[in-house]
């Protein structure tokens, strides 16, 4: 009887109850935001390091909250992941980015030479209809699939199952390119790089941060660049904030980069300014 009493008490633990209620409310709010079109996609330029010319953009989602203002993805992506809402949200971001690319291409000849990177979470990757949905979005918006880069994380590749390899192969068959995001932060065995059909390595911001100050960080970044060269993959450095980092990365042979030094993520209209051609020169 004593045990049952304790169990019953645990069932009504007020702190736990509050947590559950809060999570349910947050989830409902997120669902409402998706239905009410409160999300917006911002775009951060990716540049050719020697010339700092625009070669592409990364699509990054934000929540334009009616009371709290613009909210960054780190506050809501984890909940979207855990509730599975990342599947419709991620699909929406991809469609938005493809529509935007099609509009830029129609208006600016320069846009036909750029790529648009879109983040794909592990949860989306496991979703059954992913490849068909992406195929539908590409066909529906009419974008050149070669201009789309899907960014996936190392942890996803770590699962190294037949179905991972199968999905990656089917994505590649659509004509899109694949990038490994945050490269170097996972517990990776390098052997998977040879087996998976990836095209681009993105050097994580944590290595770029200390490239001129922390012993070993430049060595690590250089190792990634060398690895990319050996496997004929492009390398993109993330989070470049200073001219020193920019110059060091060029010395190491890194081709492309993105970071606040070049531009912060911004609304589509800011990218259009660059694509008119006047600002690029
Ligand atoms: P990420 O994919 O690694 O994206 C790069 C993040 O670094 C972005 O943060 C960007 O604003 C930030 N960043 C770029 N340059 C600099 C710099 O020079 N200094 C600093 N300190 N930060 C820089 P953001 O937009 O807050 O996004 C955070 C994360 O949220 C992303 O990291 C990505 O993992 C996730 N995310 C964003 N949009 C999406 C999406 O549509 N789908 C999915 N699944 N995840 C997304
Ligand atoms: Ca990314
Ligand atoms: Ca990243
Ligand atoms: Ca990162």
TrEMBL record:
Residues covered by the EAL domain: 23-279
Record protein name field: Two-component system response regulator
Protein species of origin: Dactylosporangium sucinum
Superkingdom to which the source organism belongs: Bacteria
């Amino acid at each position: 009887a004593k045990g049952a009493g304790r169990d019953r008490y645990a069932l009504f633990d007020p702190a736990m109850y509050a947590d559950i209620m809060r999570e349910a409310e947050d989830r409902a709010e997120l669902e409402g935001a998706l239905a009410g079109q409160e999300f917006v996609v911002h775009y951060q330029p990716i540049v050719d390091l020697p010339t700092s010319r625009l070669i592409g953009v990364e699509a990054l989602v934000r929540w334009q909250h009616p009371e709290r203002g613009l909210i960054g993805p780190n506050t809501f992506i984890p909940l979207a992941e855990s509730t599975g809402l990342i599947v419709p949200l991620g699909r929406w971001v991809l469609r938005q980015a493809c529509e935007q690319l099609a509009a830029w291409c129609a208006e600016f000849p320069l846009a036909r030479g750029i790529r648009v990177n879109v983040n794909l979470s592990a949860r989306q990757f496991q979703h059954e209809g992913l490849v068909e949905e992406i195929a539908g979005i590409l066909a529906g918006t009419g974008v050149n699939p070669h201009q789309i880069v899907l960014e996936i994380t190392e942890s996803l590749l770590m699962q190294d199952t037949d179905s991972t390899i199968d999905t990656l192969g089917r994505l590649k068959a659509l004509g899109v390119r694949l990038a490994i995001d945050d490269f170097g932060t996972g517990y990776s065995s390098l052997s998977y790089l040879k087996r998976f059909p990836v095209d681009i390595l993105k050097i994580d911001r944590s290595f770029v941060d200390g490239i001129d100050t922390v012993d070993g960080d430049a060595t690590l970044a250089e190792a990634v660049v060398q690895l990319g060269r050996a496997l004929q993959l492009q390398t993109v450095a993330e989070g470049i904030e200073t001219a020193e980092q920019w110059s060091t990365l060029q010395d190491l042979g890194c081709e492309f980069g993105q970071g606040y030094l070049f531009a912060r993520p911004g609304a589509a209209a800011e990218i259009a300014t660059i694509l008119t051609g006047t600002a690029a020169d």
